Amino acid sequence: MRYVPVDEAVNFSLSNFKLSVETEKLELEQLLKRIPAKEIRSPVRVPPTNRSAVDGFALCSDSVTSASSNNPIPLVLREDKPGKISCGEAVPISTGDPLPDGADAVVMLEDAEKEGNRVLIMKSVAKFDNVSRAGEDFEQGDIVLSRGTLIRPWHVASLSALGLEEVDVFRKLKVGIIATGSEVSEPGGEGFVFDSTSKLIAGYLAEQGYMDVKRYGIVEDDEEVIASVIEKAWEKEDIIITTGGTGPGSRDLCVKALQRVGGKILIRGIAMRPGRPTSVGELKSKPVFLLSGYPVAAFVGVRFLVLPFIEEKLGIIDQRLRFIFAKLTSRVFGEVGVESFIRVKLSPCGNELCADPIMLRGSGILSSLLNAGGFLRIPRNAEGYEAGEIVRIELV
Predict the structure, then answer these.
(1) What CATH number has the domain spanning 29-46+142-170?
(2) Domain range 322-395, its CATH number among 3.40.50.970, 2.60.120.260, 2.40.50.180, 2.40.340.10
(3) What does pTM read for this prediction?
(4) 15-69 per-position pLDDT tens digit
């Protein structure tokens, strides 16, 4: 049996599946962690004109070049908010107010003193000191949101500053998760094992923000029943994920159930540890990812196969930033023919960031994820890494 390398499995999935996701128009308050359907450019300049950044006096900077506390320069105080001032005049101004014509700088209140119908300037200012210049935040035509950006609060704030009220985004990707295993039950049930795997991957995918994740409950080890739930999920979801029933044993029924309803297995097993039974199938053009029933193995399958496939298909650009470099605290070993994913704890050590391997094996040791800040990937056939090496850590 040939186990397919992880990156090859991702690329194969990208080449063989399409994700046709419609768009919808949402108000700004609904945009967080959604994906814009098209590039958005600023329709205006922000700020639209030069404006004061402080409370003080607007003036012509050339008129106060020698001003100081020992050499205050008097200017005529214009209280009538004129349309234009001349050098030798000053106008009271508040933060955010447009600069009057003729003014090119602002002196702060504490650096000036009113005296009758004039104001004494006690500090020199250069051109555009204490001024927010027109277009310094956004020029008309600037890109505010690139296609594929995961929308964050600062994006929402920028859109609001531009006066936009709603944005076209991709609708949420629909993902259905089917847990299998007669020995598995919900908490409070009578099964031998309480379900954690489907809750883990459902929560992780839902946490991304742009997916609508539905759990289809726990299905007993019955090929016909599993097949019927897969068919039901196919009618409503864009992607189907199963947990359990992926290995080569006789009780692993997800493969047979998928084939029973006309589906195909395209990849049977992936060269990774943990998660070697992970497989990729297809049902009427929709992708079906068959993951291990063990929680850590299933998580590795989602994090390094399913999520990269989704992000690439939707053009999400944030994925390229999900790693850091750290110093390895102890030696780790690779495995012939298999890419290993080692859970590591991240912590500061002096002026560096250190990665401490906390679990080399144990596909079902859920507690190992509690302290894991990321995974160290050891390439296939690599001997491993020595303590003290700087290694790339894939964040969870």
Answers:
(1) 3.90.105.10
(2) 2.40.340.10
(3) 0.88
(4) 999 998 999 999 999 999 999 999 999 999 999 999 999 999 999 999 999 999 9
